[in-house]
Amino acid sequence: MQKILIIEDNPMVVKSLEFKLSRENYEVVVAKDGREAMNFLDLHSFDLVLTDLMLPFISGTQLIQHIKETFPRTPVIVLSTSKQENIIMDAFNLGVDDFITKPFNPNELSLRVKRSIRKFQ
Fold first, then answer.
1. CATH number of the domain to which 92 belongs
2. How far apart, in whole angstroms, are the C-alpha atoms of residue 46 and residue 40?
3. Does the predicted TM-score (pTM) go above 0.90?
4. Total tally of structural domains belonging to the chain
5. Domain limits at 65?
6. Kindly report the CA angle at 61 between 59 and 64, in degrees rounded to 5?
7. What letter would DSSP give residue 5?
8. Both ends of the chain: CA-CA distance in Å?
9. Given this model, what pLDDT does residue 83 score?
10. The 27-31 sheet, strands edge to edge
């Protein structure tokens, strides 16, 4: 079973992601902030990371840098409410594999998750 780390502080978004991805037979691990995510990354390996950019304690940007330096083969998808081009470009320049704007379509998210995981297998 493929394991996905979700880093998101909005409980409604977490519920939606957990529901959709669990139904598609992914093992889902949820971190509510950047600090908790760093702990999970130290203890487990993941097939994909879904992260928000605006997080408590450690920012999504710092997390992405850490993941790309430490686990370069782990795909990262950013979920963000931001539609600002500079924020989106910064995320891609850090090496993220995809950027999904909230609110998102669960079926589209599912397709992007599958595509990203398949690309790195």
1. 3.40.50.2300
2. 9
3. yes
4. 1
5. 3-119
6. 115
7. E
8. 13
9. 75
10. 27-31, 3-7, 48-51, 76-80, 98-101
Task: Tell me which residue of 70, 102, 75, 74 sits closest to 88, measured CA to CA.
Answer: 102
Q: What is the pLDDT of residues 63-76, one digit of tens each?
A: 999 999 999 999 99
Which of 16-25, 49-58, 77-86 comes out lowest in average pLDDT?
Answer: 77-86
E strand spans, the chain: 3-7, 27-31, 48-51, 76-80, 98-101
Q: How many residues does the chain have?
A: 121
- Answer yes or no: is pLDDT of 97 > 90: yes
Residue 86 has pLDDT above 90, yes or no: no
- Looking at residue 24, its amino acid is E
